[in-house]
From TrEMBL:
Taxonomic path: Bacteria, Pseudomonadati, Pseudomonadota, Betaproteobacteria, Rhodocyclales
Any one GO molecular-function label of the UniProt entry: DNA binding
Sorted UniProt keywords: Aminotransferase, DNA-binding, Pyridoxal phosphate, Transcription, Transcription regulation, Transferase
InterPro entries per the UniProt record, alphabetical: Aminotransferase_I/II_large, HTH_trans_reg/aminotransferase, PyrdxlP-dep_Trfase, PyrdxlP-dep_Trfase_major, PyrdxlP-dep_Trfase_small, Tscrpt_reg_HTH_GntR, WH-like_DNA-bd_sf, WH_DNA-bd_sf
Pfam short name (any one): GntR
Xref: Gene3D superfamilies: Aspartate Aminotransferase, domain 1, Type I PLP-dependent aspartate aminotransferase-like (Major domain), Winged helix-like DNA-binding domain superfamily/Winged helix DNA-binding domain
Name the UniProt record assigns to this protein: PLP-dependent aminotransferase family protein
UniProt superkingdom: Bacteria
Transmembrane segments: none
The keyword Transcription regulation is assigned to this record: yes
Domain HTH gntR-type, chain residue ranges per copy: 1-69
């Protein structure tokens, strides 16, 4: 870790612990140089990093001050309280209708599920792809079928090792994106009619996969900051024949919640006692705003019951559709399902990503990406604080690029979606994240695109529409 990152992390820790409080002035650059034995450029880099994370702000001719925490002026939404009965899903057509609106490039993409492609090293990846295609051994069309390219799986295993997870490349199956991995995992551990535990709200792609496979769901109460309620899950496991869990423990979509380490240990232990597999959708793990990276549940798994799913789509290569699953004791079943459905993932893309991970400065790219997302999220939340009416509640994320908002009484997210779209703005209304089409007073906004005047105007327009709905 570079010296400026160490200084930034030390300051961030003091802010998190309350030693430095919102509104207080932090040490001047000159004072920090003396006390930390650092150069002015190092201190300025550290302060720029803290500013990009939304932790401090520069005031003209006054210095740097601790910023009010993201969304601090807004109340946090309550823990969700879904019903306790199993549900058969009929949500796919409804979700597709909503999501089609987010594809228009002329629309301000606050409803998109993707970050801006401008944030990724696509030129460098294209060069790696061209080189890989020229050098490609024709036999790779056979040898790189499932479980996938050996070097790419080795590089992914090294990434796990750097995150504190020791596993063999043999456990890893390369897939065509995280969605295929989730589908394969569900097929490996369930049968049609089985019951799957999900968060409430939950990622709509998981809901669609569960519906397609003829499974039912039980929704588990979920905290907007600390994620799935492990106590409620324990009660559900005692009452229902749950065959698998599909959870996001890091920067959950749509809430942005991150399960604390002690709850994570409790969760893995609970599922081990019940012999219930956990499909851990961890596509946002690399997009944390602070240090260190949250640990995956996979790091606590001694029984091979965690199927850890991730992808390069959100952190490196959107559009390449290359993901993977570290499937534990279910790896062979997942591999066979992959072979029987699509044989393998595009061979040149696997080779190009393996080359980039080996030579391309992935960690440098991730640092820049995290800084950009943290800065964009801070600006989006500040705009929401300025433009949205009283009574709005906001789940303040610690990573990723989504903000979950509970609207005041009288608001209608589906109507707001239609009204906003007519004005060239997309949003993601809450019902697409629910097995029962709940959360109609909630919306998810995307902060993964550079913040522009158009973004600011879009949030102001949304604020006006919400006030009109709520009679204000």
């Amino acid at each position: 870790m570079n010296r400026y990152q160490q200084l930034a992390d030390d300051m961030a820790r003091r802010i998190a612990e309350g030693t430095l409080r919102p509104g207080e002035r932090i040490p001047s650059v000159r004072h920090a140089c003396r006390s930390q034995n650092a150069s002015p450029s190092t201190v300025l880099q550290a302060y720029a990093l803290l500013e990009s994370r939304g932790l401090i702000e520069a005031r003209p001719r006054s210095g740097y001050y601790v910023r009010s925490r993201l969304g601090q002026t807004l109340a946090e939404p309550p823990v969700s309280r879904p019903g306790t009965d199993a549900t058969a899903l009929t949500v796919s057509d409804f979700i597709f209708d909503i999501l089609d609106s987010a594809r228009d490039r002329e629309v301000v993409p606050l409803g998109s599920g993707f970050p801006s492609p401008e944030l990724f090293p696509l030129d460098r990846l294209a060069r790696a792809l061209a080189v890989s295609a020229r050098r490609l051994d024709p036999w790779r069309s056979v040898t790189d079928l499932a479980p996938g390219n050996d070097e790419l799986r080795r590089q992914i295993a090294l990434r796990y090792l750097s995150a504190g997870v020791s596993l063999s490349p043999e456990e890893i199956v390369i897939t065509s994106g995280a969605m295929e991995a989730i589908n394969l995992c569900l097929q490996a551990v369930t049968r049609p009619g089985d019951l799957v535990a999900i968060e409430s709200p939950a990622f709509y792609g998981g809901l669609q996969a569960i519906e397609r496979l003829g499974l039912r769901v039980i929704e588990i109460p979920t905290h907007p900051r600390e994620g799935v309620d492990v106590g409620a899950l324990a009660e559900a496991l005692d009452r229902h024949p749950i065959r698998a869990c599909l959870f996001m423990l890091n920067h959950q979509n749509p809430l942005g919640a991150c399960v604390p380490d002690d709850r994570r240990r409790e969760l893995v232990s609970l599922l081990a006692r019940h012999d219930v597999p956990l499909i851990e959708d961890d596509v946002y793990a690399e997009l944390h705003f602070g240090e260190p990276r949250p640990l995956p549940a996979k790091s606590l798994d001694s029984a091979g019951q965690v199927l850890h799913v991730s992808s390069f789509a959100k952190c490196l290569a959107p559009g390449y559709r290359v993901g993977w699953v570290a499937a534990g004791r279910h790896a062979r079943a997942v591999q066979r399902l992959k072979l029987s459905t699509s044989l393998g993932t595009a061979v040149p893309l696997q080779a190009a990503l393996a080359d980039y991970l080996h030579h391309g400065g992935y960690d440098h790219h991730l640092r820049r990406l995290r800084q950009a997302l943290a800065s964009q999220t801070a600006r989006a939340i500040a705009a929401i604080e300025r433009h949205f009416p009283p009574g709005v509640q906001l789940a303040s994320p610690r990573g990723g690029y989504f903000v979950w908002i509970a609207l005041p009484p009288g608001a209608d997210a589906l109507a707001l979606h239609r009204q906003a779209l007519a004005r060239g703005i997309s949003i993601a209304p809450g019902p697409i994240f629910s097995a029962t089409r709940g959360f109609n007073q909630c919306i998810r906004l995307n902060t993964g695109h550079p913040w522009t005047d158009a973004s600011e105007r879009a949030v102001a327009t949304l604020g006006t529409l919400i006030r009109a709905q709520c009679g204000g």
